[in-house]
Amino acid sequence: MDRTRFSLGENDAPTTWYNLAADLPGAPPAPALNPKTHQPLTRAEMAHTMPEPLIEQELSTEREIEIPDAVRELYALWRPSPLFRARRLERALGTPARIYYKYEGGAPTGSHKPNTAIPQAYYNKLAGKTGLVTETGAGQWGSATALAASFFGMTAKVYMVKVSFEQKPYRRALMETYGARCTPSPSTETEVGRKILADDPDCPGSLGIATSEALEAFAQDPDLGYVLGSAANHVLLHQTVIGQEAIRQMELAEDYPDIVVGCSGGGSNLAGLSFPFLGERLRGGRDVRVIAVEPAACPTLTQGTIAYDYADTGRLGPLFRMHTLGHGFVPPAVHAGGLRAHGIGPLVSRCVEDGLMEARAVPQTDCFEAGVRFARTEGIVPAPESTHAIRVAVDEALRCREEGTAKTILFGLSGHGHFDLAAYDRYFAGTLADDRPDEALLADAADGIPLVGRG
Amino acid sequence: MDRTRFSLGENDAPTTWYNLAADLPGAPPAPALNPKTHQPLTRAEMAHTMPEPLIEQELSTEREIEIPDAVRELYALWRPSPLFRARRLERALGTPARIYYKYEGGAPTGSHKPNTAIPQAYYNKLAGKTGLVTETGAGQWGSATALAASFFGMTAKVYMVKVSFEQKPYRRALMETYGARCTPSPSTETEVGRKILADDPDCPGSLGIATSEALEAFAQDPDLGYVLGSAANHVLLHQTVIGQEAIRQMELAEDYPDIVVGCSGGGSNLAGLSFPFLGERLRGGRDVRVIAVEPAACPTLTQGTIAYDYADTGRLGPLFRMHTLGHGFVPPAVHAGGLRAHGIGPLVSRCVEDGLMEARAVPQTDCFEAGVRFARTEGIVPAPESTHAIRVAVDEALRCREEGTAKTILFGLSGHGHFDLAAYDRYFAGTLADDRPDEALLADAADGIPLVGRG
Fold this sequence. Notes:
EC 4.2.1.20 (chains A, B), Rossmann fold, TrpB-like_PALP (chains A, B), about 40% helix, tryptophan biosynthesis (chains A, B), homodimer
């Protein structure tokens, strides 16, 4: 019988998170900047928004950071997550390549997001917070926050982009089932929201606006902790359980990836899978190609500028040095809502800048084509975000067929698509558009990137 | 760190299915009857609808039946499934009881149904069939059939009860993503469907009607295999991987259940978990109470008659000796669509008749209350069907608290509720009804039970 699953027992779960900053050659990662002074954020300033242990993790250059027992106990609900060899997909492609995937859809909310929601909730609880507040686009992050809050007996308040709130009632219902309160953004609950609604009562919302509302709500209630779903160093750090497990599972498979592929929005899923492999490479291990895959509709890594920019539209939060399309950029409404990010986590950006990672942009219909092929051979219906990684894994496997090379390809299957079947419906109906951003809009947004520290 | 997950590696997966018929004391299970002659179905008659290996399994009294390698390889996609100790729920209940649950929601379609869809597809493929046809109510079974067909390169045709087809577009989209064709029933594709639509163009459909349409389509195309989702001996057999794994996992936990709880419709999930434990008991092992939990809206085990009756409304299929409310009974539209069955698998019925199992009926709002409590402590949002098992597990744990006894309770969490969040929405809105069947309707339906072999 061909072996297809490589499982780790709960005793083989990682006990530490892996911090890539410890192994990065060259200058230390660029610091975040205060949005008012444009000077590096101090610890004291960071303490306004984050509990001490998370600040420590955000700034740390230690290689290994211990995962608290309470977090590991909750991880055990779905971790270690399985790693599979996609033998049926390989056969269908007629490729000599060996394709593996690491599957995060077994988490209670169906994606990798709880890997960081749980520790963020934990540290906020330790710091005396009784509730969490955050923003969400398509709802993956909001669901994970709602779940994590319920585990620690905390309240959760989620500002959800209004158009998604209306299009995805199941995501809202999932958050409410966990006891969270979910509000369509822009709302009348905040100054920011009221101002926007006064200008445009039909405003469909955006992640930038929702972030501003969450930050405003956070600022007004000292009992609330603000948590975030991607991009920040500590968020990427928490996700490295994925790649650490994958390294051990590839050992069980007696194989090692030549290529690691991950979909890329804010970068946390990609970093979670790839950073531990990059760490091995940087410490003298095997060479591994890492490919970040983004939607053609939001080509942050392939067409963005490397510069200091805001993560939020409202310019309330700090500036980060990263690939950015400009904080004013609003990408076309592709179904991979989790990848519609104008900027990317600074550590991922740095990896691309330093040539440790490649980036590729793919149109969504090509991704759905690969996603359907995957569902029909491997059995799991992937989230639209994850289909981006599948598309490139398939393309690389087809290249192996052409070249007659038997490479080992590992990709991240970041979540299942059970909440996204309306998108598959549209794909089959032929009504999915392959919108690319208008060149003039891209240029406008790039013009909005501040001049701070451009080099 | 408290251990909460008890995992088996892929090498610890069962290699055989367990057949309770080998250990049942007393007379052999009552045979199915030909719907026309009312004589026991012959093998030759069964061969019209089932490939030889499935007939063999349907009639076998061997204790262990080998699982083909091709099936085990596909099971490995989510099996062995995890068994958890619900420590957070225990703490929330303040009970001295130890509560465990076996989780089947990690399957690609989110429930236990693929455990039998895959072997049924496999044997039909071996028999030269190129496609599968079946009926589905809420869509769990149709999804599993679509998945299994895609694994073996077969077509799949699913007649889905029209009201569910319209209420649950995501379930239909899931089937189509796997390449299946899904038709709302009654349809104009069959004689049966056309006749019903002529009488009542707005007919919302029923599982009985959908079954008749699937059987008609099957009869007209020799390339199609007909597959079924519950009740039959071979279906229950395939599900016993659940309980066999659970026995080994309880060993890992160094514990053994005093009580095993499962939700009960056609009986396959309940049997899959409990039969291996009952087998141990019957072979001189430890005493274990098994509780079958059904919806108060469809009290087959608690208010049904033990008699020979049809499984389908159209009386096209055989008669089975079972607890039945009458084949004409249409239960109120509770959200646990998978439990709306007028009859139950003959082997489960026999277990209740012989006192090997107890049965309990619970109203749906009580079940959702328990389901929400479970989601907020354990993190997994359960399918409405599964909340029935949770309700009784919680009730038994609360009884332990009252009595100061530390019993071990194991229940089956047959699926996740990601496709059922509209039902949770209605629960929170307070618009869920606790419909019970009208006494006059129950009496009418009972009158329709044929007089064949009533004892």
